[in-house]
Amino acid sequence: MKGQDDTHARILECLVEGNRAWAQNAPVLALGLVVRTFTRTGEPNKAAEHDLGLASANIATEATTRKLFVHQMIGLDPDAARIAFDIPDHAEAFTALAIGYRETSSHMNQALIERDTKPRERRALREFVFTARFGNPAGL
Ligand SMILES: Cc1cc2nc3c(=O)[nH]c(=O)nc-3n(C[C@H](O)[C@H](O)[C@H](O)COP(=O)(O)O)c2cc1C
Fold first, then answer.
1. pTM reported for the whole predicted model
2. How many whole angstroms separate alpha carbon 40 and alpha carbon 91?
3. Which of 31, 70, 72, 114 sits at 20 to 30 Å (Cα–Cα) from 11?
């Protein structure tokens, strides 16, 4: 949390500039790490990215039920995060998550306000849910 220590500032420094402009207003910043080996066996975890995606989705769902918003960002420098947070070789900062309540802050520039407030457009399920073969819409 902002103010408790400098974690917020250090995560912010790991983000690419475009993300920094937006994320600096979020009260909570977190890093999403992939851990590429299993703790118990040391064997490679082929599902490491999947695990992070699932954990992030669960965070987003829980946050939404609490009327919070989560913005995931892959635009970060993993090497900078490795140094800033002593991340070992078998792990990698893969995403950052900005968490907070939705608001239009006076600190934000007009382009960001427009992006955040414009109506969402979602792809139709038939564009990516297939049956029989890749590309064949499942007839939902
Ligand atoms: C894994 C992942 C990485 C993302 N990386 C970025 C990013 O670096 N910068 C960014 O502005 N949006 C990024 N996005 C998109 C936003 O998090 C968000 O999904 C998008 O702005 C749509 O927001 P909405 O769900 O409110 O429509 C990423 C999304 C995901 C799932």
1. 0.89
2. 15
3. 114
